[in-house]
């Protein structure tokens, strides 16, 4: 995806108020997870209302870091019975196994670590979006 250059602020509507800044810190405070910060992000900040938009590259990095962080926290509490084999989820979604691995790697599918391997898991609260369709993680292991 092409990086967009922001000039006018989409939040307050100020013209030419957006300035590109590096070294931004985003505090992530998800429900049920220990808060943490992601540093070194880049984005456009409005000089008027101080609202900000991350660059696509930083947005992607943030998503990966959030998923990684949650995976590490979830790995300690998700029981083995909740794990979904990659093969099974690939069949449910009618995508190749590599797509499932890619989705986990880029932060598009929640997972936990078993050793160094990533596994998707059943969770009522988690949803993923594939080919324009939303799927509940808890349903995926049951659809064939
Ligand atoms: Zn603004």
Automatic annotation (TrEMBL):
Q: Which domain of life is it from?
A: Bacteria
- What this protein is called in its record is Uncharacterized protein
The species is Turneriella parva (strain ATCC BAA-1111 / DSM 21527 / NCTC 11395 / H) (Leptospira parva)
